[in-house]
Amino acid sequence: MMQLLDMYSAGCRDFSHLDFREAWMPGLQLPEVQLCYADLTCAHLHQAVLAGSNLAGANLWRANLSEADLSRVNLERSILIRAHLERADLSNACLREADLRLASLKETGLARADLQRANLSYADLTGANLSGADLRYADLTRAVLVEANLTGARLEGAILDRARLDPVAVAPIEEPLKSLV
Questions:
Q1: Which of 91, 127, 82, 133 minimizes the C-alpha distance to 109?
Q2: pLDDT in tens, 96-111
Q3: Alpha carbons within 13 A on the beta-carbon side of 13
Q4: What is the pTM of this model?
């Protein structure tokens, strides 16, 4: 990790295609970096700061990103299967076509996030803030959305088969859902 920080301090911002499998980097602060197609399988990035970074196509299978600052991050087409993103800040992030199956997104900030065509099947979004999020054509099969804030979320074409929705959360999304019936 020291070598990575030294490279960052020297001005290097492109760490694309590198192998960080099982790396232990809690609290890492690397905002605005390029990690496209990097392998971060099972990496421990608890409370990391990667705001504004590009992780398009990265493999974050089972990565721990709990409480991380991932605001404005590009995670388009990234693999986040079984990732731990509890209480992470993903506001204004691009997660278009990302694979978030079985991910834990409890109390995660996803305000204004782009989740178009993302696979969130079986994901736990309990208490997540999805206000203003774009979930068009996202797969939310069996996702848990209890106490999630869906105010202003776009859900046209979203698959909500057997998703667990809080009755209170259904009210703000009732009108868009009527068009799906």
A1: 91
A2: 999 999 999 999 999 9
A3: 10
A4: 0.90
